[in-house]
């Protein structure tokens, strides 16, 4: 009895958060050779929100320089992007 209202609430939070993120920087929809999208979907919105959450978690939990390993930005962003979409495509 509580599942539907909880899911509707989470859907609404993700949608509003993605809307705020899109106001700062336009969201770029994921594309593939076989599926060229032109509009953002909920999948793109939840991936953007996940990346935002992870960015703040990584920044907040940064360790001393001696305990950290530096990863170049491009591989880090590719891995984060793959993970952000992985959970969604697993369910579809």
Features:
single chain, 92 residues, 0% strand, globular
Oligomer: single chain
Summed up, the helix count is 3
What is the strand content? under 5%
Taken in chain order, the helices and strands follow as HHH
Please summarize the sheet with the most strands. Answer: none
What is the CA-CA span between the terminal residues?
Answer: 24 Å
Q: Tell me the Rg in angstroms.
A: 16 Å
Assign a percent range to the helix content: 55-70%
3D shape: globular
| Poorly predicted parts | none
Mean pLDDT: 79
Sheet/helix structural class: mainly alpha
For the secondary structure, the number of strands is 0
Explain what you see.
The chain is mainly α. It is built from three helices and no strands. Helix 2 packs across helix 3 (73-91). The longest helix is centred in the first third of the chain and has 22 residues, at 3-24. The protein is globular, with a radius of gyration of 16 Å. The two termini are 24 Å apart.
Short description:
With 92 residues, the protein is mainly α. The chain has three helices and no strands.
